[in-house]
TrEMBL record:
GO cellular component: ATP-binding cassette (ABC) transporter complex
Family statement: Belongs to the ABC-3 integral membrane protein family.
Stated name of the protein: FecCD transport family protein
Localization terms from the record: Cell membrane; Membrane
GO annotation, biological process: cellular response to iron ion; response to zinc ion; transmembrane transport
One Pfam assignment: ABC-3
Residue stretches in coiled coil: none
Origin species: Micavibrio aeruginosavorus (strain ARL-13)
Membrane topology designation: Multi-pass membrane protein
Length: 285
């Protein structure tokens, strides 16, 4: 039985897949805490769709597609911030407007210049077939993101809670927001290798949403989200060996199961404990 459970670790491609998935899951979960705090859950979805023109241009210029994806994501995030600052439009309207525009430009580029781009690998990801160079790229991106977030998490928390208060205590709000969106764009590109563009949104939303139901303290929320992101990503990649299933789909399903578990049984905000408390109150217990 033990030999059967350890069998995936005898294959190098599985060891790489489990390790890289856990690292990416940890970074995305860290970022998800801030997106939940600010109510920007659509931002990850927007960035995932906005990278398409960057990928198309990178292939046209014979560059690594991650480079094009990163700069397209960064440009999309910057465009959203600029439109938000200069207009009174609602944030969901701005996000929808920008990401559909970027996505349309990407499709237009691909249709005008047909290229040998494996769109399926970008949309669905394929962590089991990731090359050594891509592994190195994802690891470098993830480690840099983790270091930056660890050093600046309190400053980012102050900015995301209340920008005016952050300014009053001497924080530079705009550079910190640019830093956050740069890290988010980089993490989105890294996550593409694991779960693909379609499921990136889950990686940068679900762990934070689950942790939000379990604690009211932001530092603890980040820690819980990171544990959830790391474990579910590693377990999803591990289970794909036995189930012969897409690792990205398994990772997101595991994260969703944990979310519904917290939704139902969270001690303070869970549906079941709240109904039990209401029933006890009504009975005078």
């Amino acid at each position: 039985m033990i030999d059967l459970l350890l069998e995936p670790f005898t294959y190098m491609y599985m060891v790489k897949a489990i390790g890289v998935s856990a690292l990416v899951g940890c970074v995305c979960a860290f970022l998800s805490s801030y997106l939940m705090l600010k109510g920007w859950s659509l931002m990850g979805d927007a960035l995932a769709h906005s990278i398409v023109p960057g990928v198309a241009l990178a292939y046209l210029l014979a560059l690594p597609y991650a480079v094009g994806a990163f700069f397209a994501g960064l440009l999309a995030a910057g465009s959203m911030a600029l439109v938000r600052q200069k207009t009174k439009l609602r944030e969901d309207t701005i996000i929808g407007l920008i990401f559909t525009t970027f996505f349309a430009v990407g499709l237009l580029l691909v249709s005008i210049n047909p290229m040998a781009v494996n769109i399926q690998s970008i949309v669905l990801g394929n962590i089991l077939a990731i090359s050594d160079s891509d592994v190195m790229q994802v690891v470098i991106i993830s480690v840099i993101c983790l270091i930056a977030l660890t050093l600046k998490w309190r400053d980012l928390m102050a900015v995301f809670f209340d920008e005016k208060h952050a300014q009053s205590i001497g924080l530079h709000v705009m550079p910190l927001k640019i830093l956050f969106f740069t890290l988010l764009s980089a993490a989105t590109v890294a996550a593409l290798q694991t779960v693909g563009a379609c499921l990136v949104i889950a990686m940068v939303v679900t762990p934070g949403a689950t942790a939000y139901l379990l604690t009211d303290r932001f530092g603890r929320l980040i820690a819980i989200a990171m544990v959830i992101g790391t474990l579910t990503s590693a377990m999803g990649a591990y289970a794909s060996y036995y189930l012969n299933a897409n690792p990205g789909g398994l990772i997101v399903c595991l994260q969703t199961i944990l979310f519904f578990g917290a939704f139902l049984f969270s001690p303070k905000y869970g549906l079941v404990p709240r109904k039990r408390a209401m029933r006890n109150t009504a009975m005078g217990v």
